[in-house]
Amino acid sequence: MKKEIVIIIAGALLAVMPVTAAAQQTLSLEDCREMAVRNDKELQQAGTQVRMAGYDRKIAFANYLPNVSATGAYIYNPNDIALISDAASDRLQNMGTTVHTMSQSIQSQLMGDITEFIKQLSIAGMKGDAQSAALAQKYTALMQDPLVQTLVGKLSQADMSDALNSLGKEIDDAFHPDMTHLFVGSVSVQQPIFMGGKIVAANDIARLAETLARTRYDQQCQEVMVNVDQAYWQVVSLAGKKRLAESYADLLHKMERDVDVSVREGVATEADALQVKVKANEADMLLTKAGNGLALSKMLLCKVVGLPLDSDIVLADESASEIPLPRIGGDKSMEDIYADRPETRSLELAGRIYDDKVKVARADALPQVAGIAAYSMVNPNLSNGFDKSFAGYFNAGVMVKIPIFHGGEHYYKTQKAKAEASLYKSRLEDAKELVNLQVTQIRKQEAEALEKLTMARSNLEAAEENLRTADIGYKEGVINANTALGAHTAWLQAQSEYIDAGIELQMLAANLNKAEGNYGSNGQGAVQDAMNE
């Protein structure tokens, strides 16, 4: 049924496609496989997935390396910044006036105190205290000294308020930095030291994921090759049946001419001639169907290998007198088959990936340590009173993050990862059992097909001998037309069964190669080709 549907679809495509002349190509089975691998769209997508997985592996490796980044910023700040209050700012700006006023007050107070002190000494001297009287005279003479009078006059005339006010204003300006235009630049380095094993596990996951992508490519490659093999041998089968139909039609047309001669000579009846004519017409119809089937099968093969559907191709085995015998016997161990089958390798890799995901989940609950270092440039200069110049600052340290409690999230993530890992291990065991069953079944079918081919060969030899005897007997007139036609029909059926048996054996060999994973080496080469694009 599937072959009929394919032929109908290919026939529809043939009806709508323009006919173009093309050079004839001779293709071997290996040529068809290589062309299909190069042109299959799904295989190209699988190759892209392999390259993407390779990039993911390189991304994961980058986590081992330091993370270096540079940052620059400009900030416009229209608001004034004051490090002291307005009252303190006012006192700083009027510091000179305040000091001058206080000094004049202190000076007046001091002169008054000295005058009062001398007065008290004079009173004590008048009362008979000679020492006090002497001191009074001495201090009075000192105060009346012109030099002292000049010094006192100079002090009373001195005014430092402007200078002190100017100094106070400078100090006040320092407490009001100009932060209108702020420039910041920094270069930082972060180096992971210990991340709980997450980076190591992530690199293992990325490496296994890349291998898994290659395995899936192999699986798709096997599908393509099996389709190519089946389409190839389908063409070979129909080509053989077309040659068979041509031989059958030639025999019947020759017999038709012979029986016409016999009718004219009176040794055969019109009924005999009519029977032969009907069989000859059936042979012509069979030849037409075989030719159409061969054309449609070649179209299907062209589609599989990526050629235009109207390409004129000839297969290397198309004109072979016998279907070549494939390699017979399964001497490959099941362990080797498990290692070569993409399905089992994929499940094994998936299980290992989930084992590493357990490590990743567990790493989230462990301490994380990283080294950090940075060099920053700032304008205004914070180290020099907000001076309008760039200043550099270097700092380095170690950062430690220790998870304490988050509702048991890390524990549940770890348990989930363990459950997923065990799930894939269980699936792997089931897949191995199915592969074992499949390989055993196809090997038995292959042995049956080989036995069927041997019987078909024996039947063909008997049918050829029977046809030869019938032709001789019919020519000698000892065998009637019905018997001769029966011999021809038996020969046609024996030839068809022999071709079918050979093709069935080739189809089973293709399925067995897929079941045993024997297409893997070609797939790996195609993966490399896809990686190099």
Index terms:
533 residues; alpha+beta; 6 strands; 10% strand; disordered N terminus; disordered C terminus
Overview of the molecule:
The structure is a single chain. The longest helix has 68 residues, at 198-265. This protein has helices spanning 2-16, 29-39, 41-62, 86-93, 95-126, 130-143, 146-157, 161-174, 198-265, 270-305, 334-340, 342-363, 409-476, 481-516, 520-532, and strands at 25-27, 67-76, 181-194, 313-315, 368-379, 391-401. Helix content is 71%, strand content 10%. The chain is built from 15 helices and six strands. The chain has 533 residues and is an alpha+beta fold. It is rod-shaped. The relative contact order is 0.13. It has a four-stranded antiparallel β-sheet, with no helix packed on it. A two-stranded parallel sheet has the order 1-4. Helix 1 crosses helix 10 (270-305) and helix 9 (198-265) packs across helix 15 (520-532). The model is unreliable at 1-22 and 521-533 (pLDDT under 50).
Task: Name the shape in a single word.
Answer: rod-shaped
Which oligomeric state applies?
single chain
Classify the helix fraction into a percent range.
Answer: over 70%
Over all CA atoms, what is the radius of gyration?
Answer: 54 Å
Strand order of the largest sheet: 2-3-5-6
Largest sheet: 4 strands, antiparallel
Number of strands: 6
Cα separation of the termini = 40 Å
| Low-pLDDT residue intervals, each spanning 5 or more residues | 1-22, 521-533
Strand residue percentage = 5-15%
Separate helix tally: 15
Main structural class: alpha+beta
SSE pattern, N- to C-terminal: HEHHEHHHHHEHHEHHEEHHH
Mean pLDDT: 80
